[in-house]
Protein backbone atom coordinates (compact mmCIF):
# COMPACT_ATOMS: atom_id res chain seq x y z
CA UNK A 1 0.00 0.00 0.00
CA UNK A 2 1.36 3.45 -0.94
CA UNK A 3 2.16 5.83 1.89
CA UNK A 4 1.29 9.51 1.70
CA UNK A 5 4.10 12.06 2.04
CA UNK A 6 2.09 15.24 1.38
CA UNK A 7 -1.65 15.60 1.95
CA UNK A 8 -3.36 18.84 0.94
CA UNK A 9 -7.08 19.13 1.67
CA UNK A 10 -9.16 22.16 0.65
CA UNK A 11 -6.14 24.41 1.13
CA UNK A 12 -6.81 28.09 0.64
CA UNK A 13 -4.56 31.17 0.73
CA UNK A 14 -5.92 34.67 0.28
CA UNK A 15 -3.80 37.80 0.15
CA UNK A 16 -5.97 40.45 1.73
CA UNK A 17 -5.90 44.13 0.80
CA UNK A 18 -7.95 44.97 3.89
CA UNK A 19 -5.38 45.09 6.70
CA UNK A 20 -8.11 45.04 9.36
CA UNK A 21 -9.13 41.50 8.35
CA UNK A 22 -8.48 38.90 11.07
CA UNK A 23 -7.64 35.35 10.04
CA UNK A 24 -10.68 33.13 10.58
CA UNK A 25 -11.18 29.76 8.92
CA UNK A 26 -14.96 30.08 8.83
CA UNK A 27 -14.82 33.44 7.06
CA UNK A 28 -11.79 32.75 4.84
CA UNK A 29 -13.94 32.46 1.72
CA UNK A 30 -15.53 35.88 2.19
CA UNK A 31 -13.52 37.60 -0.55
CA UNK A 32 -13.84 41.17 -1.79
CA UNK A 33 -12.81 42.32 -5.24
CA UNK A 34 -9.41 43.56 -4.06
CA UNK A 35 -8.40 40.24 -2.48
CA UNK A 36 -6.15 37.83 -4.36
CA UNK A 37 -7.06 34.15 -3.98
CA UNK A 38 -3.68 32.58 -4.68
CA UNK A 39 -4.64 29.03 -3.66
CA UNK A 40 -8.34 28.24 -4.02
CA UNK A 41 -9.49 25.18 -2.05
CA UNK A 42 -7.22 22.65 -3.70
CA UNK A 43 -6.77 19.03 -2.66
CA UNK A 44 -4.23 16.36 -3.66
CA UNK A 45 -1.87 13.78 -2.19
CA UNK A 46 1.74 12.98 -3.02
CA UNK A 47 2.96 9.45 -2.43
CA UNK A 48 6.30 8.71 -0.75
CA UNK A 49 9.06 8.43 -3.33
CA UNK A 50 7.01 10.17 -6.02
CA UNK A 51 8.04 13.11 -8.19
CA UNK A 52 4.91 15.25 -8.32
CA UNK A 53 4.83 18.08 -10.83
CA UNK A 54 2.90 21.34 -10.49
CA UNK A 55 3.15 23.33 -13.73
CA UNK A 56 1.10 26.43 -14.38
CA UNK A 57 1.19 29.94 -15.84
CA UNK A 58 2.34 33.06 -14.07
CA UNK A 59 0.03 33.88 -11.16
CA UNK A 60 -1.42 30.38 -10.96
CA UNK A 61 -0.43 29.98 -7.29
CA UNK A 62 2.37 27.40 -7.65
CA UNK A 63 4.91 29.24 -5.52
CA UNK A 64 2.31 30.13 -2.90
CA UNK A 65 1.43 26.43 -2.64
CA UNK A 66 5.09 25.55 -2.07
CA UNK A 67 5.35 28.19 0.66
CA UNK A 68 2.32 26.70 2.40
CA UNK A 69 3.88 23.24 2.39
CA UNK A 70 7.21 24.69 3.56
CA UNK A 71 5.52 26.41 6.56
CA UNK A 72 6.50 29.86 5.20
CA UNK A 73 2.83 30.84 4.91
CA UNK A 74 -0.22 29.81 6.94
CA UNK A 75 -3.27 28.50 5.09
CA UNK A 76 -6.46 30.53 5.45
CA UNK A 77 -8.51 27.36 5.18
CA UNK A 78 -8.12 23.62 4.83
CA UNK A 79 -5.13 21.57 5.97
CA UNK A 80 -1.63 20.74 4.75
CA UNK A 81 0.21 17.72 6.17
CA UNK A 82 3.78 16.54 5.52
CA UNK A 83 4.64 12.99 6.57
CA UNK A 84 1.63 13.07 8.89
CA UNK A 85 2.50 16.41 10.53
CA UNK A 86 0.23 19.44 10.21
CA UNK A 87 2.19 22.47 8.93
CA UNK A 88 0.39 24.75 11.40
CA UNK A 89 0.38 22.57 14.50
CA UNK A 90 3.81 20.97 14.03
CA UNK A 91 5.91 23.36 11.90
CA UNK A 92 9.21 22.38 13.54
CA UNK A 93 8.64 18.71 12.74
CA UNK A 94 7.83 19.57 9.14
CA UNK A 95 10.90 21.78 8.79
CA UNK A 96 13.15 18.91 9.88
CA UNK A 97 11.74 16.70 7.13
CA UNK A 98 11.84 19.07 4.17
CA UNK A 99 14.15 21.28 2.20
CA UNK A 100 13.28 23.86 -0.42
CA UNK A 101 14.90 25.38 -3.49
CA UNK A 102 13.29 28.53 -4.88
CA UNK A 103 13.85 30.33 -8.15
CA UNK A 104 15.61 33.13 -6.23
CA UNK A 105 18.25 31.39 -4.14
CA UNK A 106 19.69 33.23 -1.12
CA UNK A 107 23.29 32.90 0.08
CA UNK A 108 26.03 34.56 2.03
CA UNK A 109 27.38 36.10 -1.17
CA UNK A 110 30.88 36.76 0.17
CA UNK A 111 31.30 33.10 1.14
CA UNK A 112 32.16 30.26 -1.21
CA UNK A 113 29.84 27.38 -2.14
CA UNK A 114 31.81 25.15 0.25
CA UNK A 115 31.45 27.62 3.13
CA UNK A 116 27.74 28.14 2.43
CA UNK A 117 27.06 24.41 2.37
CA UNK A 118 29.16 23.73 5.48
CA UNK A 119 27.18 26.41 7.31
CA UNK A 120 23.91 24.85 6.14
CA UNK A 121 25.09 21.40 7.20
CA UNK A 122 25.92 22.62 10.71
CA UNK A 123 22.44 24.12 11.07
CA UNK A 124 21.14 20.57 10.60
CA UNK A 125 23.70 19.18 13.06
CA UNK A 126 25.90 17.67 10.32
CA UNK A 127 29.64 17.96 10.86
CA UNK A 128 32.92 16.28 10.08
CA UNK A 129 35.01 15.24 7.09
CA UNK A 130 32.28 12.94 5.77
CA UNK A 131 30.00 15.86 4.99
CA UNK A 132 32.82 17.95 3.52
CA UNK A 133 33.48 15.07 1.11
CA UNK A 134 29.76 14.78 0.37
CA UNK A 135 29.67 18.48 -0.51
CA UNK A 136 32.51 17.98 -2.99
CA UNK A 137 30.72 15.02 -4.57
CA UNK A 138 27.37 16.81 -4.98
CA UNK A 139 28.91 20.00 -6.38
CA UNK A 140 31.01 18.06 -8.88
CA UNK A 141 28.01 15.99 -9.98
CA UNK A 142 26.23 19.26 -10.70
CA UNK A 143 29.08 20.29 -12.99
CA UNK A 144 30.70 22.86 -10.66
CA UNK A 145 34.46 22.86 -11.19
CA UNK A 146 36.73 22.44 -8.21
CA UNK A 147 38.25 25.88 -8.80
CA UNK A 148 34.80 27.44 -8.30
CA UNK A 149 34.00 25.57 -5.09
CA UNK A 150 36.14 27.96 -3.05
CA UNK A 151 35.42 31.25 -4.82
CA UNK A 152 32.79 33.73 -3.54
CA UNK A 153 29.25 32.94 -4.65
CA UNK A 154 28.81 36.55 -5.83
CA UNK A 155 31.38 35.88 -8.57
CA UNK A 156 29.34 33.00 -10.01
CA UNK A 157 26.66 33.19 -12.69
CA UNK A 158 23.00 32.96 -11.69
CA UNK A 159 22.82 29.47 -13.14
CA UNK A 160 25.81 28.33 -11.10
CA UNK A 161 24.33 29.87 -7.97
CA UNK A 162 21.14 27.90 -8.58
CA UNK A 163 23.19 24.71 -8.71
CA UNK A 164 24.71 25.59 -5.33
CA UNK A 165 21.19 26.09 -3.92
CA UNK A 166 20.17 22.65 -5.17
CA UNK A 167 23.34 21.10 -3.72
CA UNK A 168 22.58 22.72 -0.34
CA UNK A 169 19.08 21.22 -0.34
CA UNK A 170 20.27 17.76 -1.33
CA UNK A 171 23.06 17.72 1.26
CA UNK A 172 20.67 17.10 4.14
CA UNK A 173 18.95 14.18 2.36
CA UNK A 174 15.44 15.49 3.15
CA UNK A 175 12.42 13.20 3.18
CA UNK A 176 10.56 15.77 1.07
CA UNK A 177 12.27 18.10 -1.40
CA UNK A 178 10.34 21.15 -2.63
CA UNK A 179 11.72 22.44 -5.92
CA UNK A 180 10.20 25.75 -6.98
CA UNK A 181 11.33 26.46 -10.57
CA UNK A 182 14.77 24.88 -9.89
CA UNK A 183 16.06 24.98 -13.48
CA UNK A 184 14.91 28.50 -14.40
CA UNK A 185 17.87 30.47 -15.75
CA UNK A 186 20.06 27.43 -16.35
CA UNK A 187 21.71 26.73 -19.69
CA UNK A 188 20.60 23.50 -21.48
CA UNK A 189 23.55 21.43 -20.23
CA UNK A 190 23.14 22.57 -16.61
CA UNK A 191 19.41 21.90 -16.87
CA UNK A 192 20.04 18.31 -17.94
CA UNK A 193 22.56 17.82 -15.12
CA UNK A 194 20.07 19.05 -12.52
CA UNK A 195 17.28 16.89 -13.96
CA UNK A 196 19.53 13.82 -13.87
CA UNK A 197 20.36 14.49 -10.22
CA UNK A 198 16.66 14.88 -9.34
CA UNK A 199 15.96 11.45 -10.87
CA UNK A 200 18.94 9.95 -9.05
CA UNK A 201 17.78 11.12 -5.64
CA UNK A 202 14.34 9.71 -6.26
CA UNK A 203 15.65 6.35 -7.48
CA UNK A 204 18.51 5.86 -4.99
CA UNK A 205 17.20 7.58 -1.86
CA UNK A 206 13.44 7.40 -2.40
CA UNK A 207 13.16 11.15 -1.88
CA UNK A 208 9.68 12.58 -2.34
CA UNK A 209 9.87 15.58 -4.68
CA UNK A 210 7.32 18.28 -5.45
CA UNK A 211 8.42 20.23 -8.51
CA UNK A 212 6.92 23.45 -9.87
CA UNK A 213 7.97 24.39 -13.38
CA UNK A 214 7.13 26.43 -16.45
CA UNK A 215 8.65 23.73 -18.65
CA UNK A 216 6.04 21.15 -19.67
CA UNK A 217 8.71 18.94 -21.24
CA UNK A 218 10.59 18.93 -17.94
CA UNK A 219 7.41 18.00 -16.08
CA UNK A 220 6.75 15.16 -18.50
CA UNK A 221 10.21 13.57 -18.33
CA UNK A 222 10.62 13.90 -14.56
CA UNK A 223 7.20 13.56 -12.97
CA UNK A 224 5.15 10.48 -12.09
CA UNK A 225 2.01 12.62 -11.87
CA UNK A 226 1.23 16.21 -12.80
CA UNK A 227 -1.27 18.68 -11.31
CA UNK A 228 -1.78 21.64 -13.64
CA UNK A 229 -2.66 24.81 -11.71
CA UNK A 230 -4.52 27.83 -13.06
CA UNK A 231 -6.04 30.75 -11.12
CA UNK A 232 -5.30 29.05 -7.81
CA UNK A 233 -7.05 25.81 -8.73
CA UNK A 234 -5.91 22.36 -9.88
CA UNK A 235 -7.54 22.08 -13.31
CA UNK A 236 -6.21 18.59 -14.05
CA UNK A 237 -4.30 15.87 -12.20
CA UNK A 238 -3.03 12.71 -13.85
CA UNK A 239 0.02 10.94 -15.21
CA UNK A 240 1.63 12.54 -18.28
CA UNK A 241 0.07 9.80 -20.40
CA UNK A 242 -3.33 10.34 -18.83
CA UNK A 243 -3.18 14.09 -19.45
CA UNK A 244 -2.23 13.64 -23.10
CA UNK A 245 -5.16 11.24 -23.54
CA UNK A 246 -7.53 14.11 -22.65
CA UNK A 247 -6.57 16.08 -25.76
CA UNK A 248 -7.80 15.22 -29.24
CA UNK A 249 -4.89 14.75 -31.70
CA UNK A 250 -4.60 17.37 -34.43
CA UNK A 251 -3.54 16.57 -37.99
CA UNK A 252 -2.92 12.99 -36.97
CA UNK A 253 -0.12 14.03 -34.57
CA UNK A 254 -0.15 12.90 -30.92
CA UNK A 255 -0.62 15.85 -28.52
CA UNK A 256 2.39 17.24 -26.69
CA UNK A 257 2.30 18.37 -23.07
CA UNK A 258 2.26 21.95 -24.35
CA UNK A 259 -0.92 21.07 -26.25
CA UNK A 260 -2.38 19.67 -23.04
CA UNK A 261 -1.52 22.84 -21.15
CA UNK A 262 -3.07 25.12 -23.78
CA UNK A 263 -6.19 22.96 -23.99
CA UNK A 264 -6.77 22.96 -20.24
CA UNK A 265 -5.86 26.57 -19.44
CA UNK A 266 -6.10 28.47 -22.73
CA UNK A 267 -2.91 30.28 -21.74
CA UNK A 268 0.75 30.37 -22.63
CA UNK A 269 3.55 30.19 -20.12
CA UNK A 270 5.28 33.35 -18.96
CA UNK A 271 8.72 33.19 -17.38
CA UNK A 272 7.70 35.23 -14.34
CA UNK A 273 7.39 34.25 -10.72
CA UNK A 274 4.07 33.58 -9.02
CA UNK A 275 2.72 35.86 -6.30
Q: What structural class do helix, strand and pairing data support?
A: alpha/beta
**Overall radius of gyration:** 19 Å
Tell me the name of the CATH homologous superfamily.
P-loop containing nucleotide triphosphate hydrolases
- What is the H/E string? EEEHEEHEHHHHEHEHEEHH
Mean pLDDT score: 85
Percent range for β-strand residues: 15-25%
Could you tell me the CATH topology label. Rossmann fold
Any idea what the shape is? globular
**Architecture (CATH level 2) name:** 3-Layer(aba) Sandwich
Largest sheet: 6 strands, mixed
List strands and helices in order, with pairings:
Blueprint: E1 4-15, E2 36-47, E3 51-55, H1 62-69, E4 77-82, E5 85-86, H2 91-97, E6 98-101, H3 113-123, H4 129-141, H5 146-149, H6 158-171, E7 176-180, H7 188-205, E8 208-213, H8 216-222, E9 225-230, E10 233-238, H9 240-244, H10 257-265
Parallel strand pairs: 3-8, 3-9, 6-7, 7-8
Antiparallel strand pairs: 1-2, 1-4, 4-5, 9-10
Helix pairs in contact: 3-4, 3-6, 4-6
Amino acid sequence: MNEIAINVENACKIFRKDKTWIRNRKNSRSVNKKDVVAVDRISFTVQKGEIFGVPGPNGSGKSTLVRLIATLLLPDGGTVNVMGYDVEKNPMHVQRLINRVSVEASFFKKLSPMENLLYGARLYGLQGKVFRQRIYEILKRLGIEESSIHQPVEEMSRGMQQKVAIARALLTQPNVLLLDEPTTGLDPRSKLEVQALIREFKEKDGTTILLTTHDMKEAEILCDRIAIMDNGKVVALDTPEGLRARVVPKNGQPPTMEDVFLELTGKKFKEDQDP
